[in-house]
Design brief:
The two termini are 27 Å apart. This protein is globular. The chain has a 6-stranded mixed beta sheet. α10 crosses α11, α12 crosses α14 and α12 crosses α15. It has 338 residues and is α/β, with parallel strands linked by helices.
Amino acid sequence: MDRLTEFRAHRVVVLALDGLLPFELGIPHRIFGRPVDAAGRHLYEVVTCSIRPPGPVDTDADFSIHVPHGPEILATADTVIVPASYELGPVYEKGVLTEELAAALTHIRPGTRLASICTGVYVLAAAGRLDGRRATTHWADADRFQRVFPQVEVDADVLFIDDGDVLTSAGVAAGIDLCLHMVRRDHGTAVANEVARRTVVPPHRDGGQAQYIHRPVPDPQLATTTTARAWALGRLHEPIRLQDMAAREAMSVRTFTRRFREEAGVSPGQWLTQQRVERARHLLESTDLSVDRVARDAGFGTAQSMRQHLQTALGVTPTTYRRTFRVSGSAARTGAEA
C-alpha cells in the first residue's frame, strides 16, 4: 500500500463542556493544528465535541459556540483533552460525574491518551482515571481538589504532569506548556520549538507554578538574574559555579539564590540541569554526535551522568531517545522547517 494511503493523522478530540473558557478551548487547536510532515500533511487532526448532540455550548464569556460533534466521536480519539469549565456542578462540588457526562466518557477507547487543562482535571478524577496517580491543577484550586479527591497525589508546584497515558496541567496558559510537551513527546524538540516560535511563546518555561502565586511585587529597581541566566546558557558545556552566576549580578550567593528562585521557580542548580537536558535532547535529535560528545557539549561531563539525568527527566536512555526521535521526528522536522 502506498505510504500516502497509510498515513493517518493523530486525532485529538477536545471535550467542550458548558461554562468552558474560550481561551483554553482554543489552545489545543492552535498547538496541534500547526505541525506538518515533509509532505505538508498535518500530523494532528483536532475536532471538538460536547456531551450532547451537535449544537451550542455556553462559555464563561458573553457568547456561546457551536460544537459540530456529539460524544460518539470520542470513540475515534487518539487523545482526549478536557479544558476547564466553570459549570461542572456535582463534578466540582462532590467529585461525581453527571449521568450525561459519564455516558459520554464511555465512548473513549481503552488506551486513549487523556489530558486536562486547569480544572478540567476534575472530570478525569471523577471518572477514576487519576486514582493513585500524580496530577496538578491551578495552584489556587489545588487544596480544594485534594480534599475532593484524596486518592489523587496532587502536586501544585508544577506547570504540568506527564504520567504516561494521562497528563494534567496547571491553570489556563499552562495548557500551552502541556500541549507543546505532547507535541515534543510525539515528534521531538525541533517540531515543538517550531510550533512555539510560530505561536510566539517560549518552547519551554522554567520553573513551576510557585512563580505565579501571589506575593509582594519586587522593587523594579532591584537587579534580576536574567544576565546570569543568559551568561550560563552560553556556557552550558563548561563547569558553572553558583558563585560565578552570582558574581555576574554582583550579588551574594544567598541573595542570588533567593532572587533566582523567586523569578524562575526553581533553584539555580535545578535550572542548569533543565537547560542541559534540553541541550542534550536537541543534540541527540539534530546531530550524529556520539553520546559521549553530546554529554560533554551539554555540560554533563560523562555519558553516564547524562544517562542518569535523562532517565530521571524523560524516563529513557540517550540512545533510546535518539532512536525514537531521529526516526519519528525527522520527516516532521523537515516539513516544519521548510
